[in-house]
Amino acid sequence: MIRIRPTRFVVAGSLLTLIGVLTAPTMLEAQADALPDSVTPAMVAEGATLFQGAGICAACHGPDGTGLTGPDLTDDEWLHSDGSYESIVERILAGVPADSSKSGIPMLPKGGSQLTDAQVRLVAAYVWSLRLEEAP
Ligand code: HEC
Fold first, then answer.
1. Binding site membership of 116 for ligand 1 (Cβ less than 6 Å)
2. 85-118 burial, b for 16+ CB within 10 Å, e for fewer?
3. pTM of the model
4. Which of 107, 116, 130 to mutate to test the pocket of ligand 1 (most atoms within 8 A of CB)?
5. Whether residue 85 is found in the same domain as residue 105
6. Where does the pLDDT of residue 135 fall: very low under 50, low under 70, confident under 90, or very high at 90 and above?
């Protein structure tokens, strides 16, 4: 007969909590360290708001950027940039003309939104950061 010892579960549970507490701040620091020089965590946060709001990006790329009509922005594959922050800024400003779109669906400059160039830099900071969240 198998005897279950409840203490084992308690120990395992506490260990998991401890691991969570220890790794959470480290992951946040790692993300801040990995940001490009001109990008701050505050820009990423503001960019997220614009992505889901005034930028209307979420309508085509999904609320979390994983893609709908427009491509997944959280994966490692960049169709129209080299994945660097500046190249993502340029891509959003320029949009994707139909003749260079992989899916044949075009994206208007700034996604057709009324974002200012400064706001595009914020939204690009958020897009750039999406890949970090995918990392383990
Ligand atoms: C009307 C739908 C639509 C909207 C709105 C839209 N996009 Fe796009 N986006 C697309 C499509 C379609 C592509 C190119 C797909 C292809 O090549 O197959 C694209 C491509 C991109 C790319 C290039 C991806 C790559 O792999 O290189 C980025 C970055 C991007 N969009 C960001 C944004 C941001 C930021 C916004 C909001 C300001 C936005 N998009 C709004 C449809 C949209």
1. no
2. beebbebbeebbeeeebeeeeebeebbebebeee
3. 0.80
4. 107
5. yes
6. very low
pLDDT in tens, 39-75: 999 999 999 999 999 999 999 999 999 999 999 999 9
Specify whether 4 is located in the same domain as 45.
no
More confident residue, 43 or 17: 43
Tell me if 72 sits within 8 A of 55, measured CB to CB.
no
Taking CA 70 as the corner, what is the angle to CA 39 and CA 130, rounded to the nearest 5 degrees? 30
Residue-range definition of the domain harbouring residue 79? 37-134
**Dihedral over Cα of 29, 30, 33, 34: its sign:** negative
**How far, in Å, from the CA of 117 to the mean position of ligand 1?**
16
**SS3 of residue 81 by DSSP:** coil
